[in-house]
Amino acid sequence: VTLENLFETIADAEVKELNLIIKADVQGSIEALQDSLDKMDQSEVRINTIHSAVGAINETDVVLADASNAIIIGFGVRPDAKARNLAERDGVEIRCYDVIYKALEDLDAARIGMLKPTEVEVSTGMATVLDTFKVPKVGIAAGVRVEEGEIAATDSVRLVRDGIVVYNGSIASMRHYKDEAKSLRSGTEGGIGLENFQDIKPGDQIEAYRIDEVARTE
């Protein structure tokens, strides 16, 4: 089950309920979402939260979602690499949000068959922070090694620490050795400064992404 095909499977009498696994950065987010879900019209589709916990989305969550035909919802958290790869292999949907109301909008729209996304997030690259250093006019920047894909200076980025999103914004500066760079490819090392953010630590991960527009279909 995915949110996009939920209404179709309900119409075909294959699904009359939606199972969710909820992971969040704080317990308050879980409680706020659950309270809102309890107030949602569930006359046609029953929404079941089969598991909720604070922390990153991990392999155990994906295994449980696969076994129970559930969708994983994350707030301020991201899947680790093993969980992401396992979810892709097993076809488990993971949806990550920064705000609760957007998740509720998607769930309600899916329930009545009106979920037609006009934007899609495309992951472009991932880097590991090796060290930090000072950059004039930027402040603390990260010395990184790009592990996957290619990170462009124009990409949006998240800084993830132990599976928790601690920053979501843009790149202020990018360097390859001492030269300014427009991008850093997998296998290379360089420096990345984040816009208006200094709390960077070795071991953090920088996830780069862009938002592509998708033509709305009727």
How would you describe what is shown here?
With 218 residues, the chain is an alpha+beta fold. It folds into 2 domains: 6-115, Translation initiation factor IF- 2, domain 3 (Rossmann fold), CATH 3.40.50.10050; 120-213, Elongation Factor Tu (Ef-tu), domain 3. 23% of the residues lie in helices and 44% in strands. The chain has 5 helices and 12 strands. The chain has a 6-stranded antiparallel β-barrel with strand order 5-6-11-8-7-12. Strands 2-1-3-4 form a 4-stranded parallel β-sheet, with helices on both faces. Helix 3 (59-68) runs parallel beside helix 4 (81-90). It is elongated. The model has no long low-confidence stretch (mean pLDDT 88).
Briefly say what this structure is.
The protein has 218 residues and is of the alpha+beta class.
CATH class of the largest domain: Alpha Beta
Count of beta strands: 12
As for the number of domains, it is 2
Question: What kind of assembly state do the chains in view correspond to?
Answer: single chain
Biggest pleated sheet: 6 strands, antiparallel, barrel
Q: Structural class, from helix and strand content?
A: alpha+beta
Number of helices: 5
Provide the succession of SSEs: HEHEHEHEHEEEEEEEE
Termini separation (Å)? Answer: 21 Å
Q: What is the CATH topology descriptor of the largest domain?
A: Rossmann fold
- Percent helix among the residues? 10-25%
CATH homologous group name of the largest domain: Translation initiation factor IF- 2, domain 3
Radius of gyration: 19 Å
Low-confidence spans: none
What global shape is seen? elongated
CATH architectural label of the largest domain: 3-Layer(aba) Sandwich
Rounded mean pLDDT is 88
Task: Write out the strand line-up for the largest beta sheet, numbering strands in chain order.
Answer: 5-6-11-8-7-12
What portion of the residues fall into strands of 2 or more residues? 35-45%
